[in-house]
Structure formats: C-alpha cells, structure tokens
Amino acid sequence: MHLNNKLSKEITHRILKETKEKVEVKIIDNAVYLNGNVSSFDQTLQAGFIAASFNKLRGVVSNLHYRSEKKIIFPEKVSDRLNGMEFDVVIVGAGVIGAAIARELSKFNLSIAVLERHSDIGVDQTAHNNGMIHPAFLTKRGTLKWEMNYKGNAMFDKVTAELDVPFKRIGTLIVAENLKEELMLFALHSLVKWHRDPPPKVLNRGELDKVEPGLAQHIKKGLLVWNTGILSPFELTIAYMENAISNGVKLFLETSVTGVYTENNCVKAVETTQGTIKTHCLINAAGLYADKIAEFAGDRFFTIHPRRGATIIFDKTYQPMKTVLGSFSMRENRNPHSKGGGFIPTIDGNLQLGPTACEVKDREDTATTFGDISELLDKFVPILSRLKPEYPKASKDKIITYFAGARAATFKEDFIIEPSQKIKGLIHVAGIQSPGLASAPAIAERVYEIIRNEVSPDVKTEFNPVRKRFKPFSEMDESEITKRTKEDSQYGHIICRCEHVSEKEIVNVLHDDIPVESVDAIKRRTRAGMGRCQGGFCLPRVMAIIEQEKGLNKERITKNGEKSFILNEKTKRGEK
Description:
Blueprint: H1 2-19, E1 24-28, E2 31-37, H2 41-52, E3 59-65, E4 86-87, E5 89-92, H3 96-105, E6 112-115, E7 132-133, H4 144-163, E8 167-169, E9 172-176, H5 179-194, E10 201-203, H6 205-211, E11 221-225, E12 229-231, H7 233-246, E13 250-252, E14 257-263, E15 266-272, E16 275-279, E17 282-284, H8 290-296, E18 304-314, E19 324-327, E20 342-345, E21 351-354, E22 358-359, H9 370-387, E23 399-410, E24 416-419, E25 426-430, H10 436-455, H11 478-487, E26 494-496, E27 501-502, H12 503-510, H13 519-526, H14 539-550
Parallel strand pairs: 2-3, 4-16, 5-6, 5-17, 6-13, 9-19, 17-25
Antiparallel strand pairs: 1-2, 7-12, 8-12, 9-11, 10-11, 14-15, 15-16, 18-21, 18-22, 18-23, 20-21, 24-25, 26-27
Helix pairs in contact: 1-2, 3-7, 3-10, 4-10, 12-14
C-alpha cells in the first residue's frame, strides 16, 4: 500500500508538471486509474501516456473527462432469439483475431459461438488493414506484441496453404542512399537477426537490380528482409471463419454485447441485443470496444483510445515496386506510436500508401480528410521519386480510392492476451493493433493454450483444417473459362469489368455459410466494385443480383449493413 501511494504521488506530480492538470491517481491491482476533468482531449492522451511510462504498472484506465467529450451510446435490445442458448465458449468480435481464435478453438470438443455487432465479419480494424505480414524487427523486442509477431509471421505459409488463401512473401527492401547509410545497413542487419527474423541479406547493385529493378543510380546497397508477406485481410478472415463454421462454430451477426453476468467472480452469461446466452467462458476480442466488455465483466484495467489511420489506393496500372521498398529517410519524423507507413504492394495488384496515425476522440471515426491525403503524398511521393526517378510520379490522378480505420490502442501500446486475474472464465484479447494481422495465428494459438490449461477440454479427432476457396474468374485460363461457362452460363456474364467478376461468383457468395446481403460484403469477397471505377458500372448489377437471390427490394439493400441504404425510393412511382 505504501509503495502504491508513493507511485500514485509520483504519477500525479508528473502529470501536473507536464500537462498543468490536476487529476486523481489510484493504483488498484497493479493498474493505474486516472480520474477527474481536464481541459482537452489532448490532455487525456498526454496523462495516459505519462502513466503508461511507469513500467511496473500493467495497465492504464483513463476516466478523464473533457468538455466536448462524445459519449458512447450502446445499442438497444432488438429481440430475444438467443434466449436459452448455451455455449461452452463465447467469442466477442469477428475480426481476423476473433475468427482465428474461433478456428483454433474448434479443434476442441466445445460448443463455440462468435458474436459480431455488424452485419458481416471483419468490418472494423480488419477491413481497414493494409494486408502486410510484418517482419518482427519493426516491433520492440521483449513485448508481447513482438513475440506474437515473430511467431505469427512464421506460421503463415502453413495457415494460408490449409485455408487456400493467396499469400506471397515479397520482402522488405531498405536501401542506402549514401556511404553513411551503407554502414547503417550492417547495424540494421544485426537488429533484424536480434529480433529473430530469418537472416537478412545485404545486396549489392547487381542483386538490387534483380530484386527491385529501376532504382536510382546513387543507390549501391540495400538490405532484404525476405519474410515480409502480403495477403488480403478480408479473405483470410473469411477463410478462418468458414473453416471454423465447418468445424461446428456458430456465428451470430448483428449481435452486440450489452452486459456480462458474473456470479462469485465467475462468468455466467452474456447479455446481447438478441437475448441472453449462457456461458462459462467469454473471450474478449472486441477490438475498439474491448475495454467496455472488460468493464461489463468487472475487470477493466486498460483503456482503448482510437488511433485513426488513412490509406491511399492507386490504380493497378501504377505499380512501381515489387517489394515493400523503404529508406532511412522514411523513418524521420514518424509518430512514436506507429511504424511510420509507406508504399506497400497488395496481393491483388494495387499499390497502397499509408497509413497515417492520428489520435481521435470517436471510436467510429473513419473519416478520410484532405489533410490525411496531403500528409501521405507530401511525405512519401518525393522519397519514391528519388528512389525510382525514371518511374512516373505517384500523382493524385492515379488514386482510385482512399479509406481510414481506427486502431484499438492501449496506453501501454502492447497486446493483452491473458485470462482475467479477477473473473474466472474471462479471457482478454485486447489492444491488438498493427502488427495484429501478422500476429493472428500466434494469438489464436496462445488462446488455445489458455483454454487447454483453464478448461482441459477433449481434442476433436475429426477436426478438418482445410478450406477450399471458390476460384475467381480472373484467375481462370481460357480453357477453364470455356469449361465453366458451358457448365453454368452465369460464368459468362461479367458483372464487374474492372476486376473481371462473374455473376456466378456473386451468386455463390450470397448462398455461402456466412450470410451476407450488402454491397460491401460482396465487394470484400469478390472485389466487385474495388476497381478503377469503384462500382460505377457494376453497382446496379450487383444490387439486381442481391434482389433476385435474396428477395430484397432494392430500396432495402444496404451498402454496408445497418441503415446504409443506397436507394431511397422509385422515381417512376407508377411502375411496379
């Protein structure tokens, strides 16, 4: 108690000195709680990071309020359809982490439910991910984030082979632009090895030309970290969940958690907008709202503060690089809580630029601003032009779209993957931001071990790790297209010309194991609408297929679920 009082006073003094704000500081169960009112949102962040700098503490809970603060409004109950249901395990959140956990736990003889608040899976952080499987040297060694990144990266060859997800290791190439930076490459070589990434290679000019053609003549050396990979985060999440469902997992969409019932410090049930589900094991993989789920259960020892990141997508005709190309200058003036962003090729052939890193007040803030786009272009385009001067400039006319998403950061900036120290049956999987995608297989494996130790369930003998995807029309050769079209004429009807998506692919998605009926859900699965025209040609055709296959009036079809209706009413009211 004496040590806690001393530490509380020290934190209080630091916050007062650096922010000019007087806040109440309490330390309970090795977590620090900040209470009171401050003058601005920025002051809440500064106070939180000051408290987090004390390494002895496991978490920071910010109960600091400011004048323009936006309150979180939780959804109201809509039905009782889940009343009376009971599962051994309930997973909250169906992003890539929740889906990976569901698939891993389906190896046990357990009844498992996954609850997702949206009308589709992988809508929040997963949908706004750049698809990069990071090498471990980009994270701080000794953190749980680094451990999961290091282990997870190495698991992707097996996972993607089992789930039939396209995956490619393109490598990260850091080039030296002068003699000083050439010497720095050898220090970076040692750093990469220390982080336990596979041994990198220092390349000379001849080797650079083979790996990344077209580099400027002043670049003589570079370091290739070959285990960097790329894939589609949408497809991986869908594959994880489809495989989990085939192994007995139940998925409930449009189901928000509104409470957790405990008795004698044990999980007993989960209250949702669709009714109450009984369970003795709750896995909190709720992303941006993981701290609220923890609070419902009576074990909040961390706060999620959203960090928005914007990304630019270029047309497929503009692809100036084969690797994730970087330079030492890209690391200058970067946000200390971000890896810095940059140019990254995608598995589908587009080049992307980003993300930014901006602390925001609202967890639902996915706005993309002119400032975001300008920040990315102003910082990175001159660097790319310098590294590849003979390649056309990455100008605005080559941009086809942009997007932003919020990361679920904690003030400790590390992953939380552990059973609750207070509530039996509660497992936290929180604070999962980048490199969360690269860490997903290892995170799922860690939760598997927690369940094995806590519950001791039997292992299934009939678990099937294999999932086969539906081969896209765009990947078929001429003979296969001819064969498929003869079998089903829908293959010959191209709905999306930019991405070469057939009617058959869209019809298949609408009748898949994961029930979807929004335009964006189809886009994530087939890429219809992701091309240069961004749905200008295919949108009405996609809607017509949804209407036909799902029996929905066009006025009831949404862009991305909830009330995101695309059409309002018929203009020719006399027509049926």
